Amino acid sequence: MSRQDPTTALAGRLQDKVVLVTGAGSGIGAAVAKVCVAEGAQVALVDYNEAAAKEVAESLGSPRVLALRADVSDEAEVDAAVQRTVEQFGRLDVLFNVAGIFDQMEPAEEFTTSVWDRVFAINVRGTGLMIQRALREMLAAGSGSIVNTSSTASIIAGGGGTAYIASKGAVASMTRQIAYEVAERGVRVNAIAPGVTHTNITGSSSMILGRHTPGPKAQQFFDKAIAASQGNIPMGRPAEPEEIAKAAVFLASDDASYVTGAVLVVDGGLTIH
Q: Which of 56, 60, 110, 170 lies at a 20 to 30 A Cα distance from 33?
């Protein structure tokens, strides 16, 4: 069965909004940036790999984009990225926290603290720092929307190693707590929980885990997840990054104006059986 291009038939849901996307240099982050531009937004693309962010920005062919380098686990770099976005576009309306890394898939009795600490630094601390800094802009304006990236690994076992799964569970819990805190002040906070998705992580043997290179156990997991998707996912295939991106953009848009504290599962039915 053929699939429609997920970026067609868009409705200007983010028209003239100022958006910041982390992890925008590849995969789901790059797809989110693409959909945001198509929906009319001004977009800051933030990535640890500045060259990748710039390449994605150039591919979008829009003068309303800005490519920035930042390590989301570094408070000063997070502050600089948000400040530069506000200087360029005048405000910040939407934050997409997509930056994240996987772990080495070690058994629980063998995981290394260096990998654990790096996964939590990016996936949890980084998400929290970006939320904190973005909220200062949004609460002052009395409006805003934040969309975090959890995972189906926070719902069912087997979707990664202990560090990764724990980090994505933390993102889901953080999303609900912060949504509760700011609900009466005009800011909505939600998350998406993608399932198996074709990205440079799941589809490449040369992927990078922060500053670490994944071992064979991680690559075997990715290869197995893709190969098994026909049988384990009711829809019979992994997601395309743009399909995840459009769900995230829905949560950020006014179409979801009464949605906050939600974790939207986008997994082709993986977690329903």
A: 170
